Each structure stands twice: as structure tokens, then as C-alpha cells.
Amino acid sequence: MDPRRSAPAVARNRDPILAVLRRVLPPTGTLLEVSAGTGEHAAYCAPHFPGLIWQPSDPDPAARASIAAWAAQATLNTIRPPLDLDAAAAAWPSDRADAVLCINMIHIAPWEAGLGLLRGAARLLPPGGPLVLYGPYRRGGAHTAPSNAAFDASLRAQDPRWGVRNLEDVAEAAAAQGFGPPEVTEMPANNLALVFRRAG
Ligand SMILES: C[S@@+](CC[C@H](N)C(=O)[O-])C[C@H]1O[C@@H](n2cnc3c(N)ncnc32)[C@H](O)[C@@H]1O
């Protein structure tokens, strides 16, 4: 059986995400991707950064099998075997990264996973190193589109610990870990890209 999974949203969001990454990623070093899911973003984006080692991760074994299978087909061999990384865990199986990327996770996981992501990224990144988040956010407590409000309700119905996060809450939690305020880029389909950088 082919272990590769496919998420329809990736075909829609991978180019806008790639455009943000082109602006903010360092040319060399290691990028840690948290919650890499199917692995399609890694396979698509990594070849555009030939100087970067791309380290994907996901706590779900089926996701890791999919990531490895997509990576085997990438046009450049810079993607490492996926790590078993739970963002909420106190210890991560990685102790350094020059950039951290997390796409569509913090609203589909308990808030503790988002807090763990910020804590772990702050521990791994050098001063100035980017933490890139992508997904839907509320702003000032309000949804930015009716579709996001409906999505939020469906997430909370699946698991009351899930839900579209408030941008200001994420920024405040990031500041508590030593990150500066995020650079916010509006993305298609009412999503945002947030780029946090560790203060020097
Ligand atoms: C909606 S998928 C997004 C996957 C991929 N980034 C994408 O955009 O297609 C959410 C992913 O978050 C992962 N995830 C859930 N809880 C997590 C946690 N505590 N730490 C890290 N990843 C987690 C899931 O295993 C899943 O692969």
C-alpha cells in the first residue's frame, strides 16, 4: 500500500507559504518542521532551499510514513527522516534549528501544543531565527471571516480543546518565550502567516 497521504489544502496553500519562506528562511542550516502531516509541504518546498537541511516531524506514525514516502520522491535529497515530535512534550528529539515551521497545527491541537511549540522553538532557535506559523486566526477576539467562524465551531465540536486561536494570545505567549512581535502576512482563504523571531 502506498503510505503517501494527500491533503487537498496543500495544493492551494503551498505556493503562498513558499513565498513567505523565500523571504524569511536562512540560506543554510536546519529547518525543523513541526506537525508535517502528509509531508507534502516538505517535498514541495525543500527543493527550493538547496542549502537547508529540512527536518520534518509529526507525532502520528502514519503521518511519518507518509512524510518519508513523499520525501523519497522529492527532487532534492535534503529531507531527513521524520522525527517523532510532540510539540507539547517537555523534551524534543532535536536540540538545534535555524528555523522552525508549523503549518495548520495550533488550532487542531490543545492550546498546550501551541505553548509547547513556542517553548521548544525558543529553546532551539538562535537569536533572530524565524518561527513561521500558518493557519487561521481570530484578531482582537473576532473571526476574520464567516468561514473561519464555521471552521472554529466544527473544530470545537470535534474536540473542545481545539479551536481557532486569537492572534494576540499567540503573540503574548510568544513574547513570554522571548520572541518579538510577529510579522503578519495575509494569506489566501482567510489564513495568516506569522513570523516570530527570537530576540537577540
Ligand atoms: C491538520 S494537520 C496539518 C498537517 C500539515 N502541516 C498540513 O498543513 O497539511 C495537523 C497535524 O498536527 C499534528 N499534531 C497534532 N498534535 C500535535 C502535537 N501535539 N505536536 C505536534 N504535532 C501535532 C497531527 O499529527 C497532524 O499531522
Question: Could you characterize what this model shows?
Answer:
- The protein is α/β, with parallel strands linked by helices and 200 residues long.
- The protein has a domain at 8-135: 3-Layer(aba) Sandwich (Rossmann fold).
- It has six helices and eight strands, in the order H-E-H-E-H-E-H-E-E-H-E-H-E-E.
- The chain has helices at 8-24, 40-45, 61-72, 111-124, 146-158, 167-176, and strands spanning 29-34, 52-56, 99-103, 130-135, 137-138, 165-166, 183-187, 191-197.
- The strands form two sheets. It has a six-stranded mixed beta sheet, sandwiched between helices.
- The longest helix has 17 residues, at 8-24.
- The chain is globular, with a radius of gyration of 16 Å.
- The N and C termini lie far apart (48 Å).
- The relative contact order is 0.16.
- S-adenosylmethionine is lined by residues 7, 10, 34-38, 58-60, 63, 86-88, 103-105, 108-109, 113.
How many individual β-strands? Answer: 8
CATH class of the domain at 8-135, anyone? Answer: Alpha Beta
The global form is globular
CA-atom Rg in angstroms: 16 Å
Compute the average pLDDT. Answer: 97
Largest sheet: 6 strands, mixed
Q: Can you count the helices? A: 6
